[in-house]
Specification:
CATH topology of the largest domain: Rossmann fold
Structural class: alpha/beta
Mean pLDDT: 84
Helix content: 40-55%
Low-confidence stretches: 123-132, 190-196
Strand content: 15-25%
Shape: elongated
Length: 244
């Protein structure tokens, strides 16, 4: 499953850092930003599944930014603000915000509202996508998504444990995106497909090593599942999803 990529936009460095860390611990890829220019750089450089946008951004106005983005893109936007009067909320909804969360907020409630907006935005296409996809091709390998069978470039079927298969699916859903060990662990827990196990960084390293030993020609010098120094791991090959 693709890990949702959220953009956390706040000009308060402490709030931005705390919220980014909280979201990463709860299974999301969270990217920090402080200005409209940074938002647009993120949107141009990769997939963004949702924007958490503070209304008060120093000299910039989050409501105006939301209005501008909504004219160009369908990305879900949740406005976050200490301004919580009804007319202020209505102004946010009027420019296309999907939700409006008042500060201070309960982190668990914010998490629930993020997931609800993502579900509304993606449920129908996501279910349709899962029904259509039959195989994934990557680096000469093939994964039969319906049978959970992995075939090598030479045509041999390679058995994977449930936990290894779950890791491979997370990587295939996020090609060329560096993932931290925490993001991988959270995604494995969300899938509910793996064996019960430790989600620590060391456990993820061991799991990655096991998968490398099965899909890399030389696990000591991996070409597909690479270590991203200072971050974690990245699937460094193109992935072709074949409908069937």
């Amino acid at each position: 499953m693709a890990i949702p990529r959220l953009l956390v936009v706040d000009d308060d460095a402490d709030m931005r850092g705390m919220l980014t860390q909280f979201l990463r611990q709860n299974g999301f890829i969270a990217l920090p930003a402080a200005t409209e220019a940074e938002i647009r750089r993120h949107l141009q450089s990769g997939r963004v599944d949702m924007i958490l946008l503070d209304v008060m951004l120093g000299d910039e106005n989050g409501v105006e930014i939301c209005a501008a983005l909504r004219r160009e893109r369908d990305v879900p936007i949740i406005l976050v603000s200490a301004l919580s009067a009804d007319h202020q909320r209505m102004q946010g909804y009027a420019v296309g915000a999907d939700d409006y969360v008042a500060k201070p907020f309960n982190p668990a409630l914010l998490l629930a509202r993020i997931r609800a907006v993502l579900q509304r935005a993606r449920r129908t296409p996501s279910l349709s996508y899962r029904r259509r996809i039959a195989t994934f091709r990557f680096g000469g390998w093939m994964l039969d998504g319906k049978r959970d069978e992995v075939t090598s470039p030479e045509g041999f079927q390679v058995p994977l444990s449930r936990r290894e298969m779950a890791l491979l699916k997370v990587l295939l859903a996020n090609p060329h995106i560096p993932l931290t060990r925490e993001e991988i662990a959270a995604a494995l827990d969300v899938t509910g497909e793996g064996e019960n196990g430790d989600g620590s960084g060391r456990a993820i390293d061991v799991l990655v090593g096991r998968l490398r030993s099965k899909i890399e020609r030389n696990p000591r010098e991996p070409q597909m599942l690479r270590t991203e120094r200072g971050i974690g791991y990245v699937l460094a090959v193109d992935v072709e999803a074949v409908e069937g």
